[in-house]
Amino acid sequence: MSDQTLPHVGAPGAMIAPARTALVVVDIQVDFAAPEGVVGQCGVDMGVAERVIDRIEPLIAAARRAGVTVAFLRVMTRPESDSHALRTLMERRGTPGAEAICRIGSGGEAYYRVAPQPGDIEVGKLAYSGFSGTDFDQQLRARGIDTLVMTGLTTDCCVDSTTRDAFHHDYHTFVVSDACGAFDEGLHLYALKAMAEHCSLLVESEAVLAAWGALPVEVAA
Predict the structure, then answer these.
(1) Per-residue b/e over 75-111, b at no fewer than 16 CB within 10 Å?
(2) Which CATH superfamily is domain 14-211 in?
(3) Of 31, 102, 156, 158, which residue is the catalytic one?
(4) Name one Pfam family in it (predicted).
(5) pTM for this structure?
(6) In this structure, are residues 70 and 166 in contact, taking their beta carbons and an 8 Å threshold?
């Protein structure tokens, strides 16, 4: 299975109109995306993260030019804020301490290659979903946003969790399949397939750029 076998919306157009849409950038942080971060120091090939960010950067620029709200989500933790369920899960899996990621003050929580600007939405979260224990929903509602265009890391975890929660909060969601990624290609593809089946539409970055005026719109013959 490849991205091309998945059901993409070729021309989202008015479905992602700038006035009611937010581009959501999930967990593009040192610990998840940079070679010096926690994941990179485990020997994981970070090329996936770099390729994802290569797609996200022009989407951010196009969103800002078009007047689309840009929302940055990132994990920000302290030992005392760690979920008991998460700590216990890591212990039972034989990886105690694996929850210690994106610690505030470590540098691992910092943005990597992208960063918010004044007027953007910023949300710090403790775990996977951007809606869990945060004011993300309130910030979106205050701006009249009902549609989210999802990007970031990782497709199977925080992108998936936030997208499903967005659906449960009654938002229309679009996952940009080539602007999100996972460190296991199988998980990336199957997460996209599951979201397309149950809660979201899939788009590619070029279609989003075209919808926001950054690329010519191709007219079907």
Answers:
(1) bbbeeeebeeeebeebeeeeeeeebbbbbeeeebbeb
(2) Isochorismatase-like (3.40.50.850)
(3) 158
(4) Isochorismatase
(5) 0.93
(6) no
